[in-house]
Specification:
This protein is an alpha+beta fold and about 220 residues long. It has seven helices and ten strands.
């Protein structure tokens, strides 16, 4: 799997990634617009948590049947020092940096794989109307490097299911906002009014670089 990042002004601008578990169809639409435009284009809708269960998003699947599920694919791809991969996808000798808090780790158990847009937030924002297969594709999205990120476990737990109106990481806030907006756009998810306001305000102080996003469907 390939996860290639290109940076401008500290924010993710363009992504090239080999897709595992989510093959983009030939007709998939791609948008390439400035950050603030991408924020402005997000549709606003009232959120609803009714009926939500994490089990409705089957996650950590092994789409390519190589013995490493989605969690481990992300850990391997995001390692700053590539780990050795043993039987059962046991990882050793790797090193990781959590950009949310700037911490570095050598034990994979110290890291969670964060859904940039939490599963509950996705449900609130439109995924409640999806099929189970689409929710599975969202929960295991290796087709865009911004969808899943390896971060310090307790920081991810502190984030929980919050959106940027109530939670932002300690570091690289502009990167985080860009990634959040990209994932919402990729999956055609809405935002609530407080979320839209927070994203607009934060984006106004970030470099207004162009973000390229390919819709998942």
């Amino acid at each position: 799997m390939t996860r290639t990042l290109r940076w401008a002004g500290g924010l993710l601008a363009t992504v090239t990634a080999a897709t595992l578990g989510l093959s983009a169809p030939a007709h998939a639409a791609t948008v390439s617009v400035p950050l603030r435009t991408l924020v402005a284009d997000l549709p606003v809708a009232t959120e609803s948590r009714t009926g939500y269960s994490r089990d409705l998003f089957p996650h950590w699947t092994d789409a390519d049947s190589d013995g490493c599920n989605t969690r481990y694919e992300v850990l391997i791809a995001e390692a700053t020092t590539r780990p050795s991969v043993g039987s059962g996808c046991q990882l050793s000798g790797g090193r990781w940096r959590s950009y949310y808090d700037g911490a570095s780790w050598t034990d994979p158990s110290d890291l969670d794989i964060d859904h940039m847009v939490p599963l509950a937030e996705a449900w609130d924002s439109g995924a409640r109307n999806w099929t189970t297969s689409r929710r599975q594709a969202f929960a295991n999205d290796l087709g865009d490097v911004r969808s899943l990120v390896a971060v310090t476990d307790n920081v991810n737990q502190a984030k929980g299911d919050q959106d940027p109106a109530t939670w932002l990481p300690t570091y690289e806030k502009c990167r985080y906002v860009g990634e959040w907006v990209a994932v919402k756009t990729r999956w055609r998810l809405s935002v609530d009014s407080a979320e839209k306001s927070a994203l607009t305000s934060r984006a106004s102080s970030c470099t207004n670089i162009t973000l390229t996003v390919t819709h998942a469907y």
